[in-house]
């Protein structure tokens, strides 16, 4: 087997292992494929042992400067490319293939940009904004309470199904990479969820459905991420909140709330489903 073919073969085995062994999402595998393919194309490496520190440093320069009409990548985007390469090297090392040690790849320092946090009054105002007793208002009230009380990602919220054990104070969500975790429901969130489910008459398996007439071609009525974003924005405006509020803003606010109550960064990391503790630490540094 030619060496170049072998390197590509190893890349394909690595990408396959991301999905089958590590449970990475299809989107993550697609991104890693693009990042590693760019590295192989730009550096013209042929063998695994051609991947040296000098090659990686030259590649880092390529990522940070305009090349062949490509725009300069932001520091965090450069790190996505370098992280994918480092993961590939970890795989090669595990397979006992001679190449650059993964620890030699250092990520580019990224300036931390912290979004402003909502005040307690703003959170309370937002949660109380849906006042109607119609199915849409009850649904929206449950959505807002779940987003804040659990800190789930908007994609995790949209993926929830209606077969929830209402006798439990926890909710099982499926996070990134098909990893499941249990999140605590506040009394208010549980009450809002109970009121919504009690009023529902549809038979969709999705927890949150589109109550309007717009349905996808496949007949799916599950509420989309974009729809939830619009719902949050609508009630934030209705509550008179000046800052831009998104589902992630509520996740951010939940992290602040937990830290203010004395939770440590590791606990917040677990609750929010972070793979590393960096994000909770960022929340903690912002007061």
Description of the structure:
The chain is mainly alpha-helical and 287 residues long. It has two domains: 3-104, DNA polymerase, domain 1 (Orthogonal Bundle); 120-285, hpI Integrase, Chain A, CATH 1.10.443. Helices cover 54% and strands 3% of the residues. It has helices spanning 3-20, 26-43, 53-64, 75-94, 120-127, 135-150, 154-158, 187-199, 225-238, 247-260, 265-272, 278-285; strands spanning 170-174, 180-184. The chain has a two-stranded antiparallel sheet. Strand 1 (170-174) and strand 2 (180-184) form a beta hairpin. Residues 276-281 have low confidence and may be disordered.
Please name the defining characteristics of this protein.
hpI Integrase, Chain A; 12 helices; 287 residues; DNA polymerase, domain 1; 54% helix
Low-confidence stretches: 276-281
CATH architecture call of the largest domain: Orthogonal Bundle
Number of strands: 2
The helix fraction, in percent, is 40-55%
Q: Number of helix segments?
A: 12
Whole-angstrom Rg: 23 Å
Q: How many structurally independent domains? A: 2
Please identify which CATH superfamily of the largest domain we are dealing with. Intergrase catalytic core
Query: Biggest β-sheet, characterized?
Result: 2 strands, antiparallel
H/E series: HHHHHHHEEHHHHH
